[in-house]
TrEMBL record:
It comes from the Bacteria. The lineage of its organism: Bacteria, Bacillati, Actinomycetota, Actinomycetes, Pseudonocardiales. Belongs to the DNA glycosylase MPG family. Keywords: DNA damage, DNA repair, Hydrolase. One of its GO terms (molecular function) is DNA binding. It comes from Prauserella shujinwangii. This is Putative 3-methyladenine DNA glycosylase. Its EC number is 3.2.2.-. PANTHER family: DNA-3-METHYLADENINE GLYCOSYLASE (PTHR10429). Gene3D superfamilies: Methylpurine-DNA glycosylase (MPG).
Length: 215
DNA sequence: ATTCTGATTCTCT
DNA sequence: GAGAATCAGAATT
């Protein structure tokens, strides 16, 4: 049991996750989210994440204060923040930070290392044939998560969704850049991904404004 | 290959 | 009422 509790594949502890979301994002690369719902197990090794750091971050859902939606981002760390977006999708975050400072890490993409058949069934139209979860809403639906999983404790082995430790990712394999789909705070490189992973989503600039040559 | 757009409803102003 | 941490398919900017 000691080996189980220390090595890759073990459920991560709250202490490991109770850090600044920018550090947590880097730390989550290579770790895995595993959902164990009624219809089976799906495990995704995280390859792309983004930090959202509450009060200082105009792109964070917490920027304008505490609301019923963003309540779980105020902690405790290690819980799941799921939100509904664009009228049809859910996105999942790992809550980090403590001390009354809200923050979380959006999980954007990963490799489906277990349960590819179930992943395909849950997301039949996704590109990648069930082997990758490319994009935050795809990743969330492949894990079978929605509104009802908001607030789940990822560090509790009894939870339907848990966060598993992974093999360390070498620093030279980690790349950073601006966050996807975010117009504000383009200067902070709070998107982290594993270089060369087939799961990493293509960058899209945020905001509805589109540059036009004339008009 | 890249760029554009419709889909669809919750949340906060 | 406007905008949204998106996706997939269609058009070709």
């Amino acid at each position: 049991m000691t080996e189980q509790s220390r090595g890759p594949g073990r459920v991560m502890t709250r202490d490991e996750l109770a850090v600044d979301p920018v550090d947590l994002a880097r730390r989550l690369l290579g770790c895995a989210l595993e959902s164990r719902l009624g219809d089976g197990v799906v495990r995704v090794r995280l390859a792309e994440v983004e930090a959202y750091r509450g009060l200082d971050d105009p792109a964070s859902h917490c920027y304008r204060g505490r609301t019923p939606r963003n309540d779980v981002m105020w902690g405790p760390a290690g819980h799941l923040y799921v939100y509904f977006v664009y009228g049809m999708h859910f996105c999942a975050n790992v809550v980090g930070l403590t001390d009354g400072q809200p923050g979380a890490v959006l999980v954007r993409a990963g490799e489906v290392v277990e349960g590819q058949d179930l992943a395909r069934r849950r997301r039949p139209t996704a590109r990648g044939n069930g082997a990758v979860a490319k994009g935050p809403a795809v990743l969330t639906s492949v894990l079978g998560l929605d509104r009802e999983h908001n607030g789940v404790d990822l560090t509790d082995p009894e939870s339907p969704v848990v966060l598993l430790a992974g093999e360390p990712v070498p620093a030279e394999s980690v790349r950073t850049g601006p966050r996807v789909g975010v117009a504000a705070a383009m200067d902070v490189p709070w998107r982290f991904w594993i270089d060369g992973s087939p799961a990493v989503s293509t960058y899209r600039r945020g905001g509805r404004v589109r540059a036009r040559a004339n008009g």
